[in-house]
């Protein structure tokens, strides 16, 4: 979902205004916007590791039988830190076993940083042709690109999908005969004056049937099929081309590398389509709580694992060794109720101090290189 949302939101300004400066801004700002929070999060983890801030993390991992809570190994030298940081941004594939990915707790999820960084430059190329292409050939061209990138197994499959959703939502949705632009105007979204496509009754019905069908397929394969036959859960990865052999992809390893999946794509794309087509859903998601949590998304991914195994390990030790709590269920509940708000508070602080600073620095840099 997050990667599709990158394509949906990264070029929102360009989709609305059709000005080339918006494309340039995304390219210039993205490296700084991502590099600053990631570099400082790695530095924070390094400080905590060096100062024994993860003292009780190993015990926490052992008691919970969760090796993801193991503390990361400290850097050998500054060169290792620098190289690991660069590899996190420029590695050609979303590997889960790189030094930097393993260094950021929990569960080797930091591979998404590489995708978030590189895919913006991918969607910029596709976005450039949008103002010069009529509706019919947008549908044919982008549908073909999504299918081909899915077959090759590239993350552009997801981000181009998000870009198509952005184009549809901003440019064409208000032109559908059964939709009023009033609700969209209240949200302050701008419209581009283009010749509207003609939607007949069948096409209007398909705008509801297609998202529901995609959600059904996604749920069927992601949850029902995985629960019924877990040994075949990753067999869908066979349905991609292997660029090395020219045959099907048979040597995949989802433990060591993150792959775009068909079930995830169907489920997430169907949900986003329903949201884009529903004013009520958009009004709910535009409420203060969801906007607040969405703003913290990047910070939560970078910092929550660190908080959990540092402060969470300290809390776990206090419950077990000081208060002598022996009920595992009670321990888990106390830790859950304590750490969730703590992680949100830390993510909010990190977002205000680090993310916002990186964003302001990126805007300053873009202004600097233009003047």
UniProtKB/TrEMBL annotation:
Keyword Membrane among UniProt keywords: yes
Regions crossing the membrane: 34-54, 109-135, 155-172, 209-228, 289-310, 330-350
UniProtKB keywords: Membrane, Transmembrane, Transmembrane helix
The keyword Iron-sulfur is annotated on this UniProt entry: no
UniProt protein name: Acyltransferase 3 domain-containing protein
Lineage, top ranks: Eukaryota, Fungi, Dikarya, Basidiomycota, Ustilaginomycotina
């Amino acid at each position: 979902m997050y990667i599709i949302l990158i394509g949906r939101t990264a070029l929102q300004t360009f989709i609305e205004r059709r000005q080339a400066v918006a494309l340039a801004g995304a390219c210039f700002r993205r490296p700084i916007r991502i590099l600053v929070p990631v570099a400082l999060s790695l530095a924070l983890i390094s400080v905590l590791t060096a100062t024994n801030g993860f003292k009780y993390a190993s015990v926490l991992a052992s008691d919970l039988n969760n090796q993801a809570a193991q503390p990361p190994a400290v850097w050998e030298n500054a060169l290792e830190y620098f190289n690991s940081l660069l590899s996190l941004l420029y590695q050609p594939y979303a590997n889960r076993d790189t030094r930097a990915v393993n260094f950021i707790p929990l569960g080797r999820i930091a591979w998404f940083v590489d995708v978030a960084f590189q895919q913006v430059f991918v969607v910029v190329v596709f976005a450039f042709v949008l103002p010069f292409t009529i509706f019919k050939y947008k549908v044919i061209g982008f549908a073909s690109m999504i299918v081909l990138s899915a077959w090759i197994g590239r993350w552009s499959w997801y981000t181009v999908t998000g870009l198509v959703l952005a184009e549809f939502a901003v440019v064409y949705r208000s032109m559908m005969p059964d939709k009023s632009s009033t609700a969209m105007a209240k949200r302050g979204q701008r419209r581009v004056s283009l010749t509207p496509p003609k939607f007949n009754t069948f096409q209007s019905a398909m705008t509801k049937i297609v998202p529901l069908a995609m959600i059904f397929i996604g749920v069927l394969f992601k949850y029902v099929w995985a629960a019924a036959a877990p040994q075949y859960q990753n067999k869908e990865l066979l349905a991609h081309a292997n660029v090395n052999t020219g045959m099907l992809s048979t040597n995949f390893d989802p433990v060591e590398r993150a792959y775009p999946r068909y079930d995830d794509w169907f489920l997430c794309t169907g949900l986003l389509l329903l949201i884009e087509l529903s004013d009520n859903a958009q009004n709910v998601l535009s409420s203060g709580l969801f906007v607040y949590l969405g703003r913290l998304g990047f910070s939560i991914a970078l910092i929550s694992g660190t908080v959990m195994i540092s402060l969470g390990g300290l809390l776990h030790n206090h419950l077990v060794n000081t208060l002598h709590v022996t009920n595992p269920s009670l321990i888990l509940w106390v830790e859950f109720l304590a750490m969730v708000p703590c992680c949100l508070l830390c993510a909010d602080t990190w977002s205000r101090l680090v993310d916002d600073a990186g964003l302001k620095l990126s805007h300053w840099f873009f202004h600097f290189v233009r003047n």
